[in-house]
Amino acid sequence: MALTLPAHPDPLHDGLAAGDLLHDLSHAFGGPFHFVLPERFDANLAAFRTALDEAGVEGTVYFAKKANKAAAFVERCAHAGAGVDVASHGELREALGHGVRGEDLVVTGPAKAEPLLRVAALQGALIAVDSLDELSRILHLDVPRPVRILLRRFPPTHTGSRFGLTDDQLDTALLRCAAAKERVRMEGFSFHLSGYDVQPRTDLAGELVELCLKARLLGLQADRISIGGGFAVDYVPAEAWHTFLAEQGPDDYHARKSFSTSDFYPYHSPVAGADALRAILAARPHGTGEPLAGRLREAGVMLLLEPGRALLAGAGSSVFAVQGVKDRPGYGIVTVDGSSLSLSEQWFNSEYLPDPLLLTPHPDQDAAEYRACVGGASCLDSDLLTWRKIAFPRRPRVGDLLVYPNTAGYQMDSNESPFHDLPLPAKVVIHHENGRLRWRLDRRPAL
Q1: Residues 350/264, Cβ–Cβ less than 8 Å
Q2: CB of 419 within 8 A of CB of 339?
Q3: Beta bridge mates, 187
Q4: How far is the C-alpha of 368 from the C-alpha of 393, rounded, in Å?
Q5: pLDDT tens track for 42-87
Q6: How far, in Å, are 56, 145, 374 from residue 416 at the CA level?
Q7: Which of 317, 326, 343, 319 is nearest to 397 (CA)?
Q8: Element (H, E) at 86
Q9: 380 Rama sector, left if φ>0, alpha if ψ -120 to 50, beta otherwise
Q10: How far apart are CA 83 and CA 343, in angstroms?
């Protein structure tokens, strides 16, 4: 029996799949496309803000732009007065160009180039400083205003991390900031932490609060901390996920490919999104004393967040048309009109696991289940969107659509490339207006 891993039911996506719009868009573009749903982004942003309000914690949510290149999401940040986390000159320019104010930007990433530092400083963006070398370059910038900075701390429990300043380096950085006086405004501390566990974030956040109190003794502002992202998304039901992990094996994949389950994204998470923030705020740093929310309030420290995937939960999907089907013993190979570069989980030596949905304009009520992997339109054996043998309700046909659900967070465009001179999939913005669905291209053609 084929393993299945269906995504959580989603009335908005299910309604789109039941209508003609996706087929019409596939016909119009003549190739794969992604659709994005800004209303879902708005709801996710509101949920994070509500969690902060419930805890009585002052804070700011910055959208981690690297998670999706669509202009629509940055436009929603500008409309809602939310921040944007950028890590390159291009991302900074995009955010400013779509209406986000400079003071609502936080600039992260290691070893930032001087042009990025200069523009960020001139625009009043908050810069997360990752090294003493970077701090030196900031202190030598010739700009007419104090440069707003956070000092990023190296996470001592994650010794493999390449980000942040050690304790000794932080001490040196604080003294340099104090000596620089009006050239910098040292507003606090940050960290970058891999994974999705709640307690390590709470522990490190508690340590950053103590660092703020220490920095104030040197006359520094130090009134905010950033805990970055790492808020999980819950893609699939718990029972289906645990069954999949227990039973999957090489026979479930084309060419008996094997994956380490430790490399899979945790597609089921019992605590996800804004609820993960609630858990972080309710936990006690290192298991003692006041919960983190109370420590933030008592110290007068703001909490900055940089979620990416979690703000994009349910906010878009990817659509490919079937170009051909071939039979192999016991299963088939479906080839679609795009490539695995537009479904980016293989970047992590993994696979995007939620089942794609098969849409056909001509349903067959008497069809038998058909197992098939999904290949891209390139000439590479490795170009498979899905190595797993999916249990389709019937044999796919040319012109059918495969809809990969909930791909807005990192999947759509992290790795996209016009390989074989194939065009990049269009991004379509779909929204409700006066009781009807309307769509437009994410980026309007230049005049």
Answers
A1: yes
A2: yes
A3: none
A4: 6
A5: 999 999 999 999 999 999 999 999 999 999 999 999 999 999 999 9
A6: 41, 39, 17
A7: 326
A8: strand 83-86
A9: beta
A10: 27
Residue 291: partners with Cβ closer than 8 Å, 6 or more residues away: 281, 282, 283, 284
> What are the Cα distances from residue 180, in Å, to 165, 219, 384, 416, 431?
19, 11, 54, 43, 49
Count of Cβ atoms closer than 10 Å to residue 266 Cβ: 16
The answer, as to whether pTM is greater than 0.90, is yes
User: What is the DSSP-derived secondary structure letter of residue 253?
Assistant: B
Structural domains of the chain, with CATH: 11-37+314-441 (2.40.37.10), 38-234+269-312 (3.20.20.10)
Q: Among candidates 445, 425, 222, which has minimal Cα distance to 339?
A: 425
CB 169 within 8 A of CB 135: no
Q: How far apart are CA 36 and CA 105, in angstroms?
A: 23
Distance from C-alpha of 112 to C-alpha of 89, rounded to nearest angstrom: 9
Angstrom distance (rounded) from CA 148 to CA 143: 12
| Residue 62 · residue 92 · CB < 8 Å | no
State in Å, rounded, how far the first CA of the chain is from the last one.
Answer: 55
pLDDT tens-digit readout, 289-305:
999 999 999 999 999 99
Provide the token pair at 51: 């969690």
- Token readout for 312 is 């994009």
Quick one: tokens of 129? Answer: 């400083």
